[in-house]
Amino acid sequence: MAFLKRLAGFTSPVxxxxxxxxxxxxxxxxxxxxxxxxxxxxxxxxxxxxxxLRLISAQNRAGEIHFLDRAAIRAQPVCAAxxxxxxxxxxxxAAAILTIPWLSFGGVCAVIGLVRVLPRGxxxxxxxxxxxxxxxxxxxxxxxxxxxxxANPLGFSDDIVLLTxxxxxxxxxxxxxxxxxxxxxxxxxxxxxxAWGAITGIPLLAxxxxxxxxLEIAAAFLLAASLAAAAVMTAFILPRIRHRAAQALLxxxxxxxxxxxxFAGAYALGKYTGxxxxxxxxxxxxxxxxxxxxxxxxxxxGWNLLRPASRGxxxxxxxxxxxxxxxxxxxxxxxxxxxxxxxxPPTGLVDNLDEYRRPDFDTSAVHxxxxxxxxxxxxxxxxxxxxxxxxxxxxxxxxxxxxxxxxQLCLPLSAESQEFxxxxxxFKLDDRCDGxxxxxxxxxxxxxxxxxxxxxxxxxxxxARQTYMNIAFPLPRGNLASILRLxxxxxxxxxxxxxxxxxxGSGDEGVYFANRVLPVRLPLNETIRVWTPGxxxxxxxxxRPPNTPVTVVARHDLWLFGMQYLTLDYYIFPx
Length: 575
Known about the structure:
Elements: H1 2-8, H2 11-22, H3 36-56, H4 67-87, H5 93-120, H6 125-149, H7 158-183, H8 188-211, H9 213-237, H10 244-273, H11 280-306, H12 332-335, H13 368-375, E1 380-388, H14 393-406, E2 421-428, H15 431-434, E3 440-446, E4 452-463, E5 466-475, E6 478-489, E7 498-502, E8 510-514, E9 520-521, E10 524-531, E11 552-560, E12 563-574
Antiparallel strand pairs: 1-2, 1-12, 2-3, 3-4, 4-5, 5-6, 6-7, 6-8, 7-10, 8-9, 10-11, 11-12
């Protein structure tokens, strides 16, 4: 039964391959005779694309495939059949109209690429290859429409217009899909160079053909070198593969890719030196066959037999559904009716720090004073000292102007201001309003001005045996979500440990804008290092706390696009 179900998944590419083989027979009923490049291209919509989609589509944490993936997989055979009819028709408006569904299908694939990449960000280069495969694909669909219309944009010949469509279907979609699969098994260092070389080389080659011969040659060499490296990595992976059929197919794919890249390099070199060893017709036959059948078809079938699992977590981070309008303010949760009156309201950000325990994080070794702060947060007061980095101070003042109007994220501007002491309040929230479980609010306001620093809803979620701190800061039309991973911060000499909370990592960690349409991972990161006075590693500037009985100190560092823009030093004391 499992074998039949697995075979059923290949129905579209198998039928497509049969149709493609039939297209090599004399077609007397066709309005035009298919050229070699036409037949070579048609392998893409009939077999290459459905094989790639099977590899890219993935289940979320609920075991479901996104409805756009399902729609694309169902629509592909019909759209591909119309492309075939277009090639059997004479070039013109009617032939172009038959390719419009394929263009629409490409648009859906691009949206799927955005749905994949925006919530994840730039983590996991191998998954980015799959994302860009989907994003580049509709470019080839546009050039297909132009080709069947008979248009010659920028003065390109008919062959160049069709070859551009071929380029984005095979190099843009098939090659990046295969490269993504290679990355799931390959070593990271060489792979990143190869992957980013291909991701950048594909559009650069198209731009070079359009605008600059020099750029065309450089991009051709970059792309050829990147894909040749992929062939080498495949050779190193082969001995680890136990599936004999997949191993044989991937070996053919790697050899074909290496040969195709040698021909591509020879063509680019000949164009640079003026000695044309391979003209376009010969390149179409030699390079085209090696790429389409040897590399793309054999490679995609082989990877479909293996289907290596992604190294990243499945999509579906549980975000809060909280979101406001123009103003949040410290009374936000009261205004929306989310406050829950319970007999024993929570007093801390977490009921017990042991919720975060895992094999590599012994929560019992965290200093008792730090545990007390996180488990009984409402019993503590805070003093904050900001340090805005050079280049961000003007932006901080502009942001503060918006923050005061919104009543949210009013970060202090200077240590000399009255905004130094912070009061906090914690209370239970209705899980039905939030969408997560065991949610509590932490409202922080400046004691002297009653201005809200943070209005936040705290919860936890667990994925792959890792429990994260899941924080939502309500904003207009959504919320800023900070997903933090907790780990020990060694105190030195076998003493109690401090605590590190960080959005840096390859799991769910990160800062997101969560909304009802599509969560977006932002180019923001933060770390919070927590110590008790006297611990090793405390910054020198924090060794002498203010004239207050401080029991815990913390340094909160924030980055934008990898550039640190703010440090907040917290001094925490019992009230």
